Automatic annotation (TrEMBL):
<dbReference type="InterPro" id="IPR007737">
    <property type="entry name" value="Mga_HTH"/>
</dbReference>
<keyword id="KW-0804">Transcription</keyword>
<keyword id="KW-0805">Transcription regulation</keyword>
<protein>
    <recommendedName>
        <fullName>Mga helix-turn-helix domain-containing protein</fullName>
    </recommendedName>
</protein>
<dbReference type="InterPro" id="IPR050661">
    <property type="entry name" value="BglG_antiterminators"/>
</dbReference>
<feature type="domain" description="Mga helix-turn-helix">
    <location>
        <begin position="62"/>
        <end position="148"/>
    </location>
</feature>
<dbReference type="Pfam" id="PF05043">
    <property type="entry name" value="Mga"/>
</dbReference>
Length: 485
């Protein structure tokens, strides 16, 4: 259904079967089953059929592929087993076979498919007295976070800890008024991470020591000020926790918070974090500094101090997260397609790509940051948030000339300045370094090459503006790619 929705031209049964690596007979049988399922699930926003060896799908505006996936998931054996593992309500394999009207052989095949998913997180499914997931605790939490993020609907909150309780704990770790003013926060992901972590702590499934991480939190003034209250809340969850275990859990909360917070403006309240970064020589700090050093080689000017600090803080969170979860990308989550960045921001995409390639050559941290699919979208988004990229790319020198009025020149300059996707620099005279001359007449007192000129009306038309954008895009691409080469 996803292929059909995303690519309506791919509707030939043979072509679809090739895309899905199956036979045409298997595809036909699957479509017939899907037609029955849609009727059983009460989905009226989609109709499908096979007609003249073509797959025909009609989607209404209200159709939601996510809703369809959720409905399927909730009926699946694998989904229920994973859910039961999380809530500690698993059954025997024979009971699962009865509940789903399966033979023992079919039940074991489905359990093996759960094992295949878990193996991608370096986890195992144990079938002793009860079915349970075993492995490193941090990876179990990452697995459950990934699972719930992709399968839980926004209206369904299946956890015993309220979002209000979670927010109270978060506020003790970070001053909320600072976060609201200077950062972008993914509240939904943070709530989910905390809910899963609190559930694990309640079951006495603890994270253990994270010595590489703890020094990052020890400079946090909110943590130091509110440590007693944080301890009290943690003991409400599990009264048997020791002070050391509470600290270890709080370090984990902090990493999760950092990854879901993007700094967008510098503020003096960032100083404790920057001090913690400066005093830390773990691999995630070294990788972050090296990334910025590599990036600086390809910027038109060095980063200003504030923007350097913002970028460093954001990179630290990315690299800490990748380090903690071993550079793995959740198979549940469809990553942002880097090629879409390639199409929209080709020179910037190449800038980040070269920076990453240079950075990853360092053996001291390359083994942690080899997974481009895991890191690259975060790098792209982080740089857009952290720095005004336009001001660090090669400027385009523009000379604007009007034979009618200097006032008109001034007004047009103001309008051109609004084209923030280009780093435009206006000159008072034409020189050999001028990239583009925009004029309302050919009769100008300069000897110019035609490929550097754009002639438009005294009051530019829509076509004039389109021609200008095309010309600027051409110059931008040419200049920046030449610089990056």
């Amino acid at each position: 259904m996803k292929i059909a929705k995303d690519n309506k031209e791919l509707n030939n049964i043979s072509d679809l079967a090739k895309e899905l690596s199956c036979s045409t007979q298997t595809l036909t049988t699957t479509v017939e089953s899907l037609i029955e399922d849609l009727e059983e699930l009460g989905i009226q926003t989609l109709s499908i059929k096979i007609e003249n060896k073509l797959f025909v799908a009609k989607f209404s505006n209200e159709f939601s592929l996510d809703r369809l996936i959720h409905l399927y998931l909730k009926k699946s054996f694998e989904y229920q087993v994973i859910l039961d593992c999380f809530f500690n309500t698993t059954k025997s394999t024979s009971q699962y076979a009865k509940d789903y009207y399966l033979s023992q052989a079919s039940t074991y095949r489905k359990i093996n498919s759960v094992k295949t998913i878990l193996a991608q997180f370096n986890l195992e499914l144990q079938q002793a007295s009860k079915i349970q997931i075993i492995g490193e605790e941090k990876m179990i939490r990452y697995f459950f976070y990934s699972f719930f993020w992709e399968t839980r609907t926004s209206v369904n909150w299946p956890f015993p800890y309220s979002k209000e309780f979670i927010k109270k704990l978060r506020q003790l770790l970070y001053p909320e008024n600072y976060l609201e003013n200077n950062t972008l926060i993914n509240e939904n992901k943070l709530d989910l991470w905390f809910a899963i972590t609190l559930m694990r702590v309640k079951e006495n499934e603890l994270i253990g020591a994270l010595p590489e991480i703890e020094r990052m939190l020890q400079k946090n003034p909110s943590y130091l000020k509110n440590k007693k209250e944080i301890t009290k809340l943690c003991l409400e969850i599990n009264s048997e926790l020791t002070i050391q275990q509470i600290d270890e859990e709080v370090y984990f909360y902090y990493v999760v918070m950092m990854y879901n917070i993007y700094y967008v403006e510098y503020d003096d309240k960032m100083l404790p974090l920057l001090e913690a970064i400066n005093e830390n020589n773990e691999v995630f700090k070294v990788a972050s500094v090296q990334f910025i050093e590599s990036l600086n080689h390809f910027l038109s000017k060095p980063l200003k101090k504030d923007q350097y600090n913002i970028l460093l803080a954001n990179l630290i969170s990315i690299h800490m997260y990748a380090f903690l979860f071993e550079g793995l990308l959740s198979p549940f989550e469809e990553p942002l397609k880097t090629k879409r960045f390639d199409r929209i921001y080709p020179s910037f995409y190449k800038l980040v790509k070269i920076t990453y390639q240079n950075c990853i050559e360092f053996d001291s941290f390359s083994k942690y940051y080899y997974n481009k699919e895991f890191l690259f979208p975060s790098y792209m988004l982080t740089l857009f948030v952290s720095i005004d990229v336009k001001n660090y790319t090669i400027p385009i020198s523009v000379y604007l000339y009007s034979s009618h009025s200097k006032i008109l020149e001034t007004i047009l300059k103001k309008e051109l300045s609004k084209m923030t996707q280009y780093h435009l620099f206006f000159t008072d005279e034409e020189t050999k370094e001028t990239d583009l001359i925009v004029s309302d007449t050919f009769n100008i007192p300069y000897k110019l090459s035609e490929n550097r000129m754009l002639i438009w009306d005294p009051i530019p038309s829509d076509t004039d503006w389109k021609n200008l954008r095309d010309k600027l895009s051409e110059i931008k691409k040419e200049k920046e790619f030449l610089f990056l080469d």
